Amino acid sequence: MKISNNWLKEYINTDLKSEKIGEYLTDIGLEVEGIDPFESVKGSLEGIVVGKILTCEQHSNADKLKVTTVDVGSGKILNIVCGAPNVAAGQTVPVAVVGTKIYGKDGSSFDIKEAKIRGEVSQGMICAEDEMGLSDDHGGIMILDETKFEVGKNFADYFELTNDLVYEIGLTPNRTDAMAHYGVARDLNAYLSTHQNDSNFEKLVSKPLNIEGTTDFQIEVEDSELCPRYIGAVIENVKVKASPDWLKNRLKAIGLSPINNIVDITNYILHGLGQPLHAFDGDKIAGKKVKVGVNEKGTKFTTLDGVERTLNGTEIMIKDGENNPMCIAGVFGGQNSGVSENTKTIFLESAYFNPVGVRKGAKFHSLNTDASFRFERGVDPNMTRTALTHAIAMIAEIAGGKMVGELLEHYPAKIEDHYIILRFSKVEQILGTKIHKEKIKEILKSLEITVLNEIQNGLEISVPAYRADVTREIDVIEEILRIYGYNKIDSPQKISFTPVKLSFDDQDALENSWARTLQSNGFNEVMNNSLTSVKDETEAVRLLNPLSGDLAFMRKSLLEGLLENADYNIKRKNQNIKFFELGKIYHKKQTYLERKQLAILVSGRDEAENWLQPKSVTDFYRLKSYVKVLLDSLPVSVEEKYLEDSRFSDAIELTVNGKTVARLGKVAPQLLKDADIEQECFYAEIELEVAQRFRTTENVKFKDIPKFNKTRKDLALLIDKNITYAELYKAARSNPSKYLKNINLFDVYEGKNLPEGKKSYAMSFELLNEEKTLEDKDITEVMNSLIKTFQKEFSAELRS
After folding, report:
1. Contact 319, 325 (CB under 8 A)
2. Which partner for 395 in 401, 566, 689, 798 could form a disulfide, CB atoms 3.0-4.6 Å apart?
């Protein structure tokens, strides 16, 4: 948000320098991110003087150039080469003397120097209007009235130039009260008045109105909940034309382009007082009646930007007497009811609209205007009339308009201030320091917060309605601290805390543990938006009031977001992807479902290329190993089964006691194509809530490290190709022996010297008796039992 220093001082009179004002504004929460100079004319016409052309002759070496002699009042006659077609002897003209800096429209600049042009000396430049920044006219040099402009005078003396400083304020969304110059001045005064700084600030009041005659116009508010307060004024005999320079410069300073005097006045009130206004061409209002309500769904409405929009039937609309839409209330005006150069009568609107209603209309039509930005957050309902009267006075002065009839107002129920009880003990507890109660009362008064009553250890207070963000005791404490000064609160020299042991019911502990594990294996965590677009709306949760079409649904899977991350990195030459995300997914079945998952995506190389390991392209088994490392921290036995899922071309599902704990596989080619990814990707998702439930079923049990060594035995099995290692592992795990501790597959062979349709698995088995050294008979018994199981269930043969 831009705040003009000159404009700010219309509301608060202080001798403080701009740097100090910026410092104080930052201290009270209106962070000044920069202070930039503004000049209504770039360079302020410095170095340009009024001159008289004495002679003008054709250049001997250029058909389009003239050689002139010019008197600039310095006692020295200047030779100036000029290419303007309208240059002639006897003219009074603006002259840029040597050393003057001339600024271009694109921000570039150049210095006027004495130089030779085609052999003739040139000691300055006779200027056109656009070269000085006065207009866009470049038809020739600017010719001045010799009766008004004196030779030798500074050209700038004949203009009301504006030099200003503009504060760039990083306004937080809650500070609706400070979205205008008056609000910033009010906040600055609160600080200055409580810190013994001189300032003069007066609360704005309504202007007296000069009313002539009566009006036939009427207003009707169909639903007071949509529009709690509405005021209109009819102004006749207006002359729509360009605004005076001072008003143009006020708007230009904060980055607005002047349009005409009526529109500029409404913008001046908006950015000055924070109250949006809207002016309608009164002669275009059918039935001389203004209605506030809704139009039927499907109604067509063309807005000021020329776009025809289809109404959804819930927007707050301003309509005429025949229910024709004229404006999306608080958002955007209509093309057919706006003010033009032919307008003679205007209907000027000032209102307080329901913030939620305005936001819905603005977001549905993807419109974001200065008015909607303020209405959505809640404007000051008590500024509605004051701002309107100030605008009426300006229109009378600048556009010659006369107000006819009384103000037309709808305000059935006053919007009350916020009643809050403030406890001194709570202030001390939150701030960590004690502020005298009289100082607290002084600060509250400076913030226009009224003390209704003093109670034991506290105050009953009334917070003005324009502070929509101050509704609780803690909000008031924050306000006190803002004005008292954050810098006055001492930081504690010692922080004491009691370490808390995390229980197994703490899901955060599981998530943090798994995140650290993945990070230690080279993964990077990502955080994606849970709002997205979907191709298949089946089971998708749609937002009632989406920010845009691309953010209209809650995500059904974490995969799409991770693929977008991968695509972004791959296109920037980072093909080796190891990402994970902790996030929620959403579905709508019989009811709304919400689940939290840990998602993992890998692609490219698993490790950076080097001379020892030049090829390390990741694959499904590497992904599975990462998932296994995580699940091994749970006191459960995991089973595998094939999974049919359109997101994968090949996938498995990991279950515990019949409950799905994880899914992993190779991402389907169509999904990769949609994401514009050409390399293979592998994806896994773990159900965090399910994993947490298994984690909490057992407490950790500590035991001594075994005193005896493990014994390893290997088996090479010849089996059918359709048999998986998972089936062999499950069969081995079912062995009743208490000595069998670990099972591993260390070699797979398919090829020559094997019967057709067969493959060879080499498996290792670790045996351990924790009480004594294993005897040969015990080892033989376990191994024979395993061999019989493999032969019986899988027709396996032993390979020598």
Report:
1. yes
2. 401
